[in-house]
Amino acid sequence: MSENEQTGKRRTYRKFTAQQKTELVVASLRGHKSVAQLCRENEISETLLRRWREQFLAAGQERLTGTTERGENDELKQRVARLERALGRKTLEAEVAGELLRGWE
User: Where does the signal sequence lie (predicted)?
Assistant: First the structure.
């Protein structure tokens, strides 16, 4: 039985801000200190820092390729085009209906 289980205490986890994570990831990428040394100094596991690095690099790659933005922009442009066509049809229908009603007078 662990000490925490014997005393009834729960293990508490530290919360790291995005800024703190970024600073650690950038420091690990610069290579002035090894990953192991950074982890010891900041009392975190190497696995955690490597996970942050993977997330950081994946987000950077996605941002640089712009695939998400382009896909969203294309989708919005298509939606605008559909709405413009629908508005055009309704405008034409209203004009035709107005002409027909004037013919009844």
Answer: none
Alpha-carbon distance values, 50 to 36, 38, 74 (Å):
10, 11, 35
Are the C-beta atoms of residues 85 and 61 closer than 8 Å to each other?
A: no
Say how far apart CA 44 and CA 57 lie, in whole Å.
19
- Residue positions counted in the chain: 105
pTM: 0.53
Question: How far apart are the C-alpha atoms of 36 and 96, rounded to whole Å?
Answer: 76
Name residues whose C-beta falls within 8 Å of residue 47's C-beta, 6 or more positions apart in sequence: none
Q: Enumerate residues 6+ apart whose C-beta is below 8 A from 79.
A: none
**What is the Cα 95 distance to its own chain's centre?**
45
Who contacts 36 (Cβ-Cβ below 8 Å, separation ≥6)?
46
